[in-house]
Amino acid sequence: MTLFQRLLVAGGLVAVTGCASLHSSTAQTKMPELFCHDADWALAGLRDARVSFTSAKAVCAADRLKLAAQILVSSDGKTDLTRARSLVDSVLNGTEVQHDASLAGLAMLLDRQLNERRRADERADKLTGQLRDQQARIDDLNAKIAALTELEKSMSIRKRSNGQ
Q: Would you kindly state where each structural domain of the chain is located, as residue ranges?
């Protein structure tokens, strides 16, 4: 290899090394850290109807728990409860609860509340079905009583007409 070829290879290596170091320094630039609230903030304002929290801002664990708590407090729909369940599960399965015990406690509390609400909804659905079945049975028995009453009337009319 000639001196010119060696210099050319060395220059190429320096250029590649320089590009690699530039690439790694830009990749190592840190994004600004997000400010996340704590569990006390997540519980604040739940009873006040004027305070509302939108899902567009639910980035941190406390944000998601606040949104789940608001859904749990104010919603009757099963789709909303499914959304609250997914928010709580994302916090329980995430890493934020490992760093903050109060968030972990709040997430577990909301988890239990959602489970109880699900069981209550299932019981209500079951009782509604039983009520519907009982009402159908009552209607059927009332129809049979009405038919028997008509039969009794027709028999008493025949007896009067035959007895005269």
A: 39-121
